[in-house]
Amino acid sequence: xxxxxxxxxxxxxxxxxxxxxxxxxxxxxxxxxxxxxxxxxxxxxxxxxxxxxxxxxxxxxxxxxxxxxxxxxxxxxxxxxxxxxxxxxxxxxxxxxxxxxxxxxxxxxxxxxxxxxxxxxxxxxxxxxxxxxxxxxxxxxxxxxxxxxxxxxxxx
Length: 156
Ligand code: SF4
Ligand code: SF4
Description:
By secondary structure, this protein is of the alpha+beta class. The protein has one domain: 2-Layer Sandwich (Alpha-Beta Plaits). The protein is built from five helices and eight strands; from the N terminus they run αββαββαββααββ. The protein has helices spanning 3-18, 54-58, 89-93, 119-122, 128-131, and strands at residues 30-33, 42-44, 64-68, 75-80, 99-101, 116-117, 137-143, 148-155. The strands form three sheets. The chain has a three-stranded mixed sheet with strand order 1-7-8, with no helix packed on it. The chain has a three-stranded antiparallel sheet with strand order 3-4-6. The longest helix is centred in the N-terminal third of the chain and has 16 residues, at 3-18. It is elongated. 12% of the residues are buried. One iron/sulfur cluster (SF4) binds next to α3.
C-alpha cells in the first residue's frame, strides 16, 4: 500500500459517518419521547385507592409500605425508590388503577432518604420545564433493521 493510501485510509473510514444521522441525543437540551408503556416514576391517585395493601403484598422488592396520611382515613402507599426496580407489579395488580407509571425519570437525589416518596409526594409529577430548564426539543425514537435512531419531533 502506498504511503498516500495509508494516510488517506482513516479519513475514508470516517467520511461516511459525517453524513449519517446522529445516533445520540443531546440530553438535557433534547429528551426522548418514551413509549406509552414506559415505566418511569409512579403517580398515585388518592381518590381511587381503597387501602387494600395489594401493591405492598405483590412488590418483590419490599419497596412499598402503607402509611398513615394526615386528615385521611386508611393507609396509603409509600414507595422507596432506593429499592424499587420499576417492575410494574404494583401498577398491574392494583384493583383500582390508583398507581400509574409516568415517563418521568429525572428523580435522582443527593440524599438517600429523599428517595422515599410519601403518598402525597407521589400524587404530583414535576413539570419537565422546571426540572430541565435547558430542554429545547423532544425527540422520537425509532428503529431500523440494524439500529435505533432519533428524530426531532417538536420544540418545547
Ligand atoms: S414497581 Fe415493582 S418494585 Fe417498584 S414498588 Fe412497584 S412492585 Fe415494587
Ligand atoms: S394503590 Fe391500589 S393496590 Fe395499593 S392500596 Fe391502593 S388500591 Fe390497593
